[in-house]
Specification:
Elements (H helix, E strand, L loop, with lengths): L1 H19 L7 H5 L28 E4 L4 E6 L4 E8 L2 E9 L14 E8 L2 E7 L5 E6 L5 E7 L3 E7 L2 E8 L2 E8 L4 H6 L3 E6 L3 H8 L4 H37 L1 H5 L10 H20 L30 H6 L1
Antiparallel strand pairs: 1-2, 2-3, 3-4, 5-6, 6-7, 7-8, 9-10, 10-11, 11-12
Length: about 325
């Protein structure tokens, strides 16, 4: 809401500056939005010297009862249609395409129609791209461009009031309000001087700098966040260690889980000696059972086997030695 109030105040201030300077007198046709009737000064547009509120709205369809026609936006085909009321119903008498969309892949650079209206006998079309360009065109009854004004930032809506056209849009830093005079004719609309007001929206860093120029508050918050993070990490590590230690204790004491009571620390010395004696006896019996009892008598028995020429040495000798024998 603050942004809207600031924009409205900027428009009022700019209009007061324009009316205070030496300007040609405005006429009745300018109040209605038409170039005609430039001889008589208007009186009905201002109420006791106060300017009415200017509301910027993107108009998708506009109707002119005195002409019996209306203009509508076709966002699918990126065009504007002029439709007339005839005896047979509604008939399209003209079409204007704001930009060429055939085989284009740069969708953000396409100038699409965003608002339409009537300025006397002319059709007003506002086309804007997503990135950084827009234009306002005046079209005749055949939907041919009569005058055009380009902008270097995307525009959202326009408003016709008191012989001026207010075009609002947004730039990378805030908002723009462009004021075009309409009383000088079509040449003035295309090439005349335009008054542009820039409203810069403060960034979050700039707001913090205004509230804390030295940076003490930001430093305190940063240190507090770091210490809080360290405390949370310490608590997490401590809790994890206790949990793992409890799980290890449960694994090392299976007797407690089976219901066997461990020996109490207050047992008597006699019971301790009996326990030691039992342990020593068990160790002695265990060492005795490691080796079997063996006889120390060594018996050698001769085994007779049948002769076989399988490994006979004389078969391996040279035949020369056998002949000598």
């Amino acid at each position: 809401m603050n942004t809207i109030y600031k924009i409205t105040l900027a428009v009022l201030f700019s209009f007061s500056l324009l009316t205070a300077t030496a300007q040609p007198p405005m006429h009745e046709g300018a109040c209605a939005g038409g170039p005609a009737a430039e001889e008589q000064p208007h009186e009905g547009c201002m109420m006791h010297g106060m300017m009415p509120t200017v509301d910027f709205q993107s108009v998708k369809i506009s109707f002119a009862p005195q002409m019996g026609t209306f203009v509508a936006i076709d966002s699918v085909e990126c065009s504007v249609h002029l439709v007339a009321m005839t005896e047979n119903g509604l008939d399209t008498i003209g079409c204007y395409k704001t930009d060429n969309t055939y085989k284009r892949h740069d969708l953000k650079n396409i100038l699409r129609p965003v608002s339409v209206g009537f300025l006397g006998k002319y059709v007003v079309v506002l086309a804007s791209a997503v990135n950084d360009s827009a234009y306002v065109a005046l079209l005749d009854e055949n939907m041919n461009v009569v005058a055009r004004r380009d902008f270097r930032s995307p525009m959202y809506a326009f408003h016709l009031e008191h012989g001026f056209m207010f075009v609002v849009g947004r730039n990378p830093y805030g908002y723009d309000i462009n004021i075009l005079p309409l009383h000088g004719g079509l040449d003035n609309f295309s090439n005349g001087e335009i008054m542009t007001h820039h409203y810069r929206v403060a960034k979050q860093s700039e707001k913090i700098k205004q509230s804390d120029p030295v940076g003490i508050g930001l430093a305190a918050v940063a240190v507090a966040v770091v210490f809080l993070a360290l405390v949370c990490i310490c608590l997490l590590i401590t809790g994890t260690g206790k949990l793992m230690a409890g799980m290890d204790d449960k694994k090392k004491s299976p007797k407690a889980s089976k219901g066997i009571k461990p020996v109490s620390e207050g047992s008597s010395a006699a019971n301790d000696q009996e326990v030691f004696a039992a342990i020593a006896a068990a160790i002695h019996l265990y060492n005795d059972e490691l080796h079997d009892e063996e006889d120390t008598v060594i018996t050698i028995q001769k085994v007779e086997r049948e002769w076989t020429p399988w490994n006979a040495k004389f078969y391996n000798m040279n035949q020369y030695f056998n002949n000598r024998r």
